[in-house]
Amino acid sequence: MNEHAPPDAPRNTSLLGRARRAALLDAALYREVAADPAATGQAFILVTVIGVIGSLAAVSAGMEIAVASALLAPVAWLVTAGLAQLIGTRVMGAPREGAWERAARTLGFAHAPAVAGALALLPYVGVVVLVVLTAWRIAAMVVALRAAFELSLPQAIVTLVLSFVTLGAVTVALTAVSASMVG
Length: 183
Known about the structure:
The protein is mainly alpha-helical. The protein has one domain (15-175). It contains seven helices and no strands. The radius of gyration is 17 Å and the shape is globular. It starts with 14 loop residues before the first helix and ends with a helix. Residues 1-6 have low confidence and may be disordered.
């Protein structure tokens, strides 16, 4: 919520309004969606749209890769939320009740900066745009985890890093297993 607005001012709970506030790293928005079960559907829509936008860059690698990229975006979001929930509650001591749902909602909205991902396709500036958007999303994920689990900044950063490392290790292991089955 706008810090200059009166506390009783109505909140903009539309998907676009929330996505804008999420992209602006509005900590109040992340606390709001953490507590709002109705925001789960909005988070899913946002992640799916971002997955489709991200798949545009993968078209040059082939249509199959682009489609897989779009379809895997929601799966990666849900798995990351699960890993963050495990680490946030088991390692950082965050409350366990509703933890996965809070993580899923807030991390879904943390994808909001990637709406500008299509700009990464621009010649000459695409790589710079991609780096900026990646850093922006990481910052949003830290804000999201702080809201979801009421963590300190260092705890949120550690939770995110451990979630990414675990996700990377699982991905490498699954890739190795599937490659050995095929080849």
